[in-house]
Design a protein that fits this description.
By secondary structure, the protein is α+β, with helices and mostly antiparallel strands. It has two helices and four strands. Strand 1 and strand 2 form a beta hairpin. It is rod-shaped.
Length: 178
């Protein structure tokens, strides 16, 4: 009987060693799975964060175009290059740094359709084509102010990136006497 008992104990010991080996293998597999899932989650997080940044930049550019066109609608003075530059500066200030001269691919167009005056400020090598005396064709014939603010941005993920152009046109009826 003693032999059976000691045989049982050695059997229990060998089972215990096997259980330890299996748990080590299981924890190693869990580490590999966790590393795989973690890398996918990091890629998703980077994509979400850069998308949110681009969305914030888009909102800033839209606000800049809207604020500049509203400002220009009642801005006094003769419509000349100084007037157009002032409206452009309002757009740049309202963009909170998103249309500064150091931003890659910025573009600001300010036009007064009643006088045919237009100012284009950009660092693009090839600015987008615009109609004469306007920033874009809107089909209206009254005297108005058009402002287009545009900039390039990028949405990144771990293995790819997408270049996007954030474009914001705005129009306001010119309310000052010409």
């Amino acid at each position: 009987m003693l032999k059976r008992v000691s045989g049982t104990r050695s059997k229990e010991r060998s089972e215990s060693v096997q259980d330890d080996n299996e748990s080590r293998r299981d924890s190693g597999a869990a580490m590999v799975e966790m590393a795989f899932i973690f890398s996918i989650l990091v890629m998703l997080l980077v994509g979400v964060v850069t998308s949110a940044i681009a969305f914030g930049q888009k909102n800033s550019v839209e606000n800049a175009a809207r604020e500049a066109s509203r400002y220009a609608a009642t801005f006094p003075g003769p419509v000349d290059n100084t007037w157009l530059s002032t409206v452009r500066d309002v757009a740049r200030a309202a963009a909170q740094g998103n249309l500064d001269t150091g931003v890659d691919g910025y573009y600001i167009c300010v036009a007064h359709t009643g006088s045919g005056q237009k100012l284009v400020d950009t660092n693009l090598t090839t600015p987008p084509p615009t109609p004469s005396g306007a920033c874009y064709t809107d089909g209206l014939s009254d005297s108005r102010v058009q402002v287009v603010a545009r900039r390039n941005s990028q949405i990144n993920a771990a293995f790819f990136s997408v270049d996007v152009t954030l474009n914001a046109p705005a129009t306001a009826r010119y309310e000052r006497a010409e």
